[in-house]
Amino acid sequence: MTECEFFDKALVYVLKMQRTEREVSIFLLRKKGCAHDVAGRIIERLKGLNYLNDAEYARMYASAKREKLSVRAIKLKLRTKGIAQSIIDELRFEDCDQSALAKAVAAKYMRSKMPDQANLARLFRYLVAKGFEYDLVGEITKEVRNANRN
Prior knowledge:
This protein is mainly α.
């Protein structure tokens, strides 16, 4: 395949959904068998055409996931997607109330469940998996248990 054909494949890949530089690199290198130097040139060309922008991707991802995931989970997912730590550090999360978000997630999770010991343990694991701190999860689990005793 020529560099032009690799570029066309990468362009289609990026146009389907916004991607990070790392995702495009993996796509070209592993899935399409592109050479490293060619992949680097294609990525730079896509960045120059403003089809790849990791900072914009991070902002959009964080705003989309803000109502479902904790700040810690969002940052971790961005790191696994190849976003630089400096870009992640620039994101603003001051307006995120982690306690209120965790309570909302817990209420939604427990909506159709009985607050027995097994479901409370599942709730605890679910909230931890969503990236909330152990102390906060423990408090919310106690609140759910106490609210349903009355």
